[in-house]
Structures are given as structure tokens and as C-alpha cells.
Amino acid sequence: MSSKIKFLLFAILAITMTSCDEDFLERTPTDAISASEALANENNMQLIINGLHRSLYSQSQTIFSGGSTQRAGNHYWVPLGDLLSGGIIHSANANNLGWRTEMQWNSHTLPTSLTSRILWHHRYNTILGANVLINRITEGTADGSLLETSTLSGILGQAYTYRAYAYLSLVQHYARGYLIGNPSTDPGVPLLFSSELPFTSEPRSTVQEIYNQIEADLNSAISTFANNGLTGGRGGSQLTIDVAYGLLARMHLSKGEWQAAADAAVLAREGYPLMSEADWKSGFNSIGLPEVIWGSRVIAPETTFFRSYFYLMSNTFNGSQVRNNPKIADRRIVDAIPDTDYRKDVFIINAPNTNTSAANNQGGFGNDPNFTDEDEFNAAVDSLNAVYGITTAFNLHPYMHFKMKNANPGSIDPDDIIYMRSSEMYLIEAEAMAMMGNIPGAQAALRPLGEERDSAYDVTVFNTQESLMDHIKFQRRVELWGEGFGYTDHIRWDEGIDHEADGGSGASAVLYQEAYQVERPSVNDDWIFKIPQQEIDANPNLTPADQN
User: Fold this and answer.
1) Which of 17, 123, 228, 451 has the smallest number of CB atoms closer than 10 Å to its CB?
2) Which helix (H) or strand (E) covers residue 114, if one does?
3) Average of per-residue pLDDT across 497-512
């Protein structure tokens, strides 16, 4: 493994001593604990877990050597999943953090890009942090140097879950999709089990071997949680058995293990009721929402400001990325949402186009075909600004969204990041049932979600496997829009990108360039992230022939 990883433990010790979360508020000077002391007792090991929590949203240079201020963990990686797959659409030629470069598919396709490098290093740093805890706890309890306690079991369960999460992220980005390849022979990513120098990994294991490890880790996490009575309850930033079940559901879905996916999804969502209309429209800015199984509570003193998820895609964040370039949704999807479905309300179909630099060349009154009266145009601007707490400094654009909204609109205040919701679990169960040809089962899984969101919902009209799968895909694209699932969905369904088809998405061919139309993953290896060139140069077990 790259020599960059050898700094991880020391970085974790530093960040945990200067950070906190809702459950662990005690602060300690960064030089008050050594590497050996960090593993001496469960209180100190909890600090390492807290460091892994924070690493999910901190600027990467604060986590490991070789990081960058331009990547702040899942602030970047979550919306990237929908940006790459064409769900989050740029309305103008504005850029920061390489966000336009990503959209044009000119980043993850390069082995020297920041994105290819930082995602790889963050996930392996997460694995190393998990290894440190797993190896110490499993060895320490066996020789009696650590007593088995509920707290220690919680730490171990979280470490197994983190390792599985990181490997699932790696294999889904840096290897061919399970269902569209040959997992028993396709190269996956290197396995790393060491927790001490020199942190040498194995060569690239097969995709199947990586999935075997993910499943083993999740099963270990679940049994560890369950054997010690840690069987549910809202965890917030802390990982719980519900998170492990949710990841297990995702993993089985990506492999086409339909019944196992459905079973795990049902277990994951227990105790997380579907959100009401008011909750769904509240902005997706808090992990306190009732559906949230897992997310990061972003602490105000440690916010990333102009490196955040909301900076990149929330049209109420006071940053140039969205002020100059409001993010819009695919109009083909928005137009298909029934008027009786309240989710349609967060997409402003007839918003006035105030951006004279809009990529569709329809910005400004006189160019906007939706308005022929300037007073009406200006009144619409004033109304939207008043409703959503923004000013005329923010550009508006048809089909712009207000799904993600700052808790304090028009500010740069930090907001939480949501990773897993119970809605996703209903959709996983429905897809799995449909793929097994169980039409009543799929309808039953969809019904609670559909009836909550749409007052006129009737799932019985989708009564064939084909119509159900089309509807499930539509529901995922609406319900989970902006939450990062587009990339893995496209790979699992083997679907390409075509912004031109069926009347067009609203994206500009000039702005999107080669990413305006992209062949499906089974015939286009550009869907696979390049392994960082630094890793190939530094890892003795990788050669140029290992490059994707």
C-alpha cells in the first residue's frame, strides 16, 4: 500500500483529540496520547472511532499526508455519484473544486487526478484505522489484556462496519460492476489487513474475493453487535447494527442476491419511519430526520465551508458554485412526477432564468421563453427569493431544485450529510422482489413509500416485472435524487447516459462535451475509476499492467 497510509494512525490521534461528536464531548491536547496509549483501553479506542467519523467529512489534508483542501470526504463523494451519472445537472459554465471537470468525465478517468487519488487514499486510510482496532481488540480479548465489554464490542462492530463500507466503495469505483462482469476473474482492489508498518497490501484480489471480505466483515459486525445486545437504536454519527444491515442490503443488491438483499433491507429500516411531507421538504440538512439510519453530524467549529456537499449542489448555499451555476434536475424525470406527489414541489419547473450566462442561452428576461411580461418575471424572482431565503445574488433557472436546503438559507453554515435512509431500504426490497418475479412482494414493498409521497398512488397498475422495474427505477431517481446513488445504479442496471434522448434532460451538449452521451458500463470502461498513479508507483504489488 502507498507510503502515504503510514501516517494514518498518527493523523487519527491528532484529529480525535481536537474533535468531538454528540456523544463524546471531552477534548484533549493533541500531544496528550501516544500511539500505544491509543490502543490501551476502550476510551482511547473510542477516540479512534470518532476520528473515523470525522474523516468522513473533513478536508482530507487534515486526515492524512498527501490530502488536499479541495476534497472534504463525503461532502464531495456523495454528490459525485449523481453528478457523474447525469442526475445533478450544471446550468452554466461555473467551476470550483474540479466540479465541472468531474461532470465532463475528465477527472476519474485520469490516474493522476485528485479525485482518483483522494478517494482511494481515504478509503484505505479508513481500512487501516479499522484494522488497528480490529487487530488490537480481537487479539487483546483473546489473551486477556482487554476485557470484553459492551463498549468494546460496539467499537469492534463499528470497525468491522467501517472496513466493509470502505471496501464496498473501493470495489464499486475501481473495478467492473459485479453483475456486468466476471467477478471470479475480474481484478478488484488490494486487500489490506495489517495495522503496523510497512502496511504492505496484497496484490489486486478478484472482485469476488473483495465481496467475500465485505460480507464476512458485515456478518462479523452484525454478530458482534447482536451478541452484546447492541441491536438497534438511532446511532447518528455512530455506526449501529442497522447501518451494517443497510450495507449488507446494498452489497447483496449489487451482486444480484435478491432475497438476501430484501431480508437485510427489512431489518435495516426497522425503527426508522418514513418522513412526512414537512420533513421531506425540510432540506435534508439534519441527521435527526426520522428516516436517517446513518449520517455525519457536521460540527460547526470544524465545517468545511466552501468544500461542503451543500456548496456543491444546494441552491441556497451562499457560494459561487451555485450562485453562478444553479443545479437543476433532469426535466424528463421531473415532468414525469405526478402533480399529486409532493416531491415534485421541490423542483421549480418554471423558475425564471436570471442567468445571462446560462448554458441554454435563455437567461435574462427577453430570452426566457416562460415569461413574456417583465413584471411577472421580476415578481417570480422576488417570490422564489422570499420563499427560499436567497437574494438576487443567486441565479435562478428552470428545473432548479430546493430538495437540499441550508438550515440557515443564504449562509455558509455547516449542515449534516445523510448516507442512509429507510426509503432506500424500501426501494431495495422492491427491486429485489421485482427481480425475483415476485410482483405482489414488490408492490407491497413499494406501497408504503408511494402512498406517503403521492396522495393518488396506486401500485397495482405496475403489474408486470418490466413495468415494476421501470417504476422502481423512477422512484429511486425521484426519492434519492442528489443523495449519490446514480453512479452505482447505472452500473447495476447497465445503463448509459443520454442527455439528448426523449426531449432532452436540459443539459447543454456544449458544456457537457463527451459526457453528454456515455455508453453503458458493460461496454465502456470509463465508468471504472483509474487507480492512482502514485499507488502504482509506490506499491510493490502493483504494476502498470494493473491499471484499469
Assistant:
1) 451
2) helix 114-143
3) 98
Cα 10 to Cα 48: distance, rounded to the nearest angstrom:
10
Count the helices and strands in the chain (H runs, E runs): 21, 10
Average pLDDT for the chain = 91
End-to-end CA distance of the chain: 17
**In sequence order, which ranges of 34-113 are alpha helices (DSSP H)?**
35-38, 42-55, 74-84, 99-103
Q: Of 178, 417, 154, 381, whose CA–CA distance to 304 is shortest?
A: 417
How does 456-482 read in b/e, with b if 16+ C-beta sit within 10 Å?
ebebeebeebeebbebbeebbbbbbbb
> Each residue of 457-467: pLDDT tens digit?
999 999 999 99
Residue 24 contacts by C-beta under 8 Å, 6 or more apart in sequence?
A: 46, 47, 50
Sign of CA dihedral 475, 477, 481, 484: positive
Listed in sequence order, the DSSP H helices in 406-526 are 422-435, 439-453, 465-479, 486-493, 509-512
Tens of pLDDT, residue by residue over 237-256, are 889 999 999 999 999 999 99
Is 336:474 a contact under the CB 8 Å cutoff?
A: yes
3 state DSSP class of 132: helix
pLDDT of residue 28: 36
Burial 500-535 (b: 16+ CB within 10 A, else e): eeeeebbbbeebbeebbebebbbeeeebbbbbbbbb
Contact 497, 89 (CB under 8 A): no
pLDDT for 321 equals: 93
Q: What are the CA-CA distances from residue 382 to residues 313, 327, 446 (Å)?
A: 22, 19, 38
- For 3-78+105-273+534-543, CATH gives 1.25.40.390
Between vectors from CA 382 to CA 378 and to CA 384, what angle results, nearest 5°? 115
Angle of helix 207-227 versus helix 241-255 axis, rounded to 10 = 150
- Mean pLDDT of the region 215-232: 89
HEC string of 280-311? HCCCCCCCCCCCEEEEECCCHHHCCHHHCHHH
Q: How far apart are CA 145 and CA 233, in angstroms?
A: 30
Mean pLDDT lowest among 5-14, 119-128, 379-388: 5-14
Element (H, E) at 190: strand 187-190
Per-domain boundaries in the chain: 3-78+105-273+534-543, 279-418, 421-503
Kindly indicate the confidence band of residue 456, based on its pLDDT and cuts at 50, 70 and 90: very high
| 320-339 per-position pLDDT tens digit | 999 999 999 999 999 999 99
Decide if 402 contacts 306 (C-beta within 8 A).
Answer: no
Tell me, rounded to whole angstroms, the distance of Cα 92 from its chain centroid.
Answer: 24
Cell numbers given for 342: 409532493
Which one, of 440, 499, 484, lies nearest residue 465 by Cα? 440
Residue 482 scores a pLDDT above 80:
yes
Residue with cell 412526477: 337
Res. 199: pLDDT tops 70: no
